[in-house]
Amino acid sequence: MNSLCTTLEPFDCAVFTIMGNAFLYSASTLSYLPLTDCARDILIDCMYLKTGYCSNFVVEKYRKNEIELTLKKIGEFRSAGIIAPYHKFESTNIQFGDFYLKLIPTLRCNLKCSYCFCTSKTTESDMSVETAKTAIDFFIMKFAAPGGRIIVDFTGAGEPLLRLDFILKVNEYVLLIKQKKHINIFSQFASNGMLLTPEVSSILKKNMILYGVSLDGDREESCRARKGLNYDLVIKNIVDMENKQYFGLAATYSGNNYNLINIFETLYKLGPEAIGMKPVRLLPDENGAITMDNIDVLKQSYNKFCLWLIEHIVHDDERLVSVLLSGEDYFVRFLKIVIRHSRLFYRCSSGLSSIAVDSSGNILICPAFVNSTSQILGNIYDGINFEAKKRFQSYYADKISYCEKCWARYACGGECFSVGYSNNKELVKPVKAMCELKKYLIQLSVYFWLTLQYDYPESYRKYKAKCM
Q1: pTM listed for this prediction
Q2: Neighbours of 65 (CB within 10 A)
Q3: Rounded Cα gap, residues 226 and 236, in angstroms
Q4: 8 A C-beta contact, residue 96 and residue 145
Q5: Cβ-contact 288, 255 below 8 angstroms
Q6: Cα–Cα distances in angstroms (integers) from residue 20 to residues 3, 17, 37, 87, in the given order
């Protein structure tokens, strides 16, 4: 069930076999093609690419005319630049379209999740309304580009609904700015759902605040990771909402909780407009971490999920697919990157078009660094350190030593800063298991799109358009 992937040194592409099918992926052209067994073996053998002659292995395994036709096709690949030497590209997409200001209202929480990155839970870290307003003013005037959409995110590092009054007061300021300055700005956050009563949901809707709930699937899996969770209460709060327009659910899967179909179907029954599933962020020795010891199990789960998704697409289950495509799902992220054929130079927008601000007004890369003084970029009163911002602009695929020679770099962008730093004390150093998972999901995305394109062309055209 797992893939076999070979980088065609010194060329900027890879050949891989996944679920019995062989493919060529080119980093130079961002193109991907299905391969015959003969083409796969000739390319993997690499002797022909280096010398112009096929190895005895290939000559003895395939008929002469099949080899000749395949070599002609490989020649066309080389002429088109699909099989080409490594080439570095200059970054062209420093900005990401949307600008995120991630406020940290509180570090306190009514749960104790096993994978929470925040260790301090005191009221001393609660943000004041004035600090939030100052942060918004700074963000608009000194950080976000004119005309860009601005999202003020209260998710932070604790449970936002412990500070409902704070959220409502800051949102009043957001709406005032929207009205007076005609800026496309709005508020949002994710909650654990414990305090999201129908009354609270109604207030949030009335004030045009978007919100979602984090839930890891069924009762057993959700309660295993989220200590103190009242699962029945959260489900009741979701079911009793007046409406679920713009409401989403987010799940964290792990080395313990990896049945992706079960997670999705459990959440889908609750009627959200969007669902996203993302991998857990844990150190390798922590319970539930994604490691090289359990990576094959996750790959197999993704294989099943991919085939399950194709089946629903073919049977035109439009609502189910729409819910998945609308969420911030980890696999969907790669599906969209692969079908768009556009180079992804950066892993995420941190330090580029998004920042986090803590209760002291410190500017951080993202909320995951709330307890780390080493990753402060500046503050909302004095501004961002120019050298720090310049450093983040240099963290793109072709300038990261760990990534610059990888065939998957333009569909990956590098390691999550938080994961790299917590595991290696280095922002851009990849974690082996996560690197393996991302490369596999890129391969699986190629399988997904080419399966649709060749076997179900009408579905391919329809969902390609939805992902562009």
Answers
A1: 0.95
A2: 8
A3: 17
A4: no
A5: yes
A6: 8, 6, 10, 30
Residues 172-223 have pLDDT tens digits of 999 999 999 999 999 999 999 999 999 999 999 999 999 999 999 999 999 9
What are the tokens at 225? 């990771």
Structure token pair of residue 351: 């330090």
Sequence-separated contacts (24+) of 135-139 with Cβ below 8 Å: 135/101, 135/103, 135/357, 135/361, 135/380, 136/101, 136/170, 136/173, 136/174, 136/177, 138/380, 138/383, 139/99, 139/101, 139/355
DSSP string computed for 368-402 = GGTT-GGGEEEETTTEE-HHHHHHHHT-SGGG-TT
Structure tokens, 368: 């995951």
Beta bridge partners of 25: 14, 32
Tens of pLDDT, residues 339-396:
999 888 888 888 889 999 999 999 999 999 988 777 899 999 999 988 887 888 888 8
Q: Parallel, antiparallel, or unpaired for β 13-18 and 21-26?
A: antiparallel
The strand pairing partners of 253, in sequence order, are 279
Give the Cα separation of 3 and 266 in Å (integer): 29
